[in-house]
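Late entry, written up from scratch paper. The run itself happened at the end of the previous shift, but nothing got recorded in the book at the time, so transcribing now.
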Amino acid sequence: MANVILERSFEPPLTDERFSEITGRLSPCLDRSGIQWIRSHLSRDRRRLICHFEAADAGAVRDALRQARLDFERVWSGEVLEP
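Output as recorded:
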């Protein structure tokens, strides 16, 4: 499995209600594709979101996002570096 990062911006800022809607649409698509959502980081101004997934590759995450009809700016694979 690869570590895959999603980057997305929001205008207006992301609300809790909108985040719940996104999660509700995306989770079934991730489950069908065998993708694990590890964690998300939301900026304090709620305009930038970065999500970490474990998936076969970045293309699998892109496909799941498209199935859920969700926008994204970038999806890419990378390494986890820890101190």
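The beta strands are 2-9, 36-42, 48-55, 74-78.
(Scratch paper discarded after transcription.)
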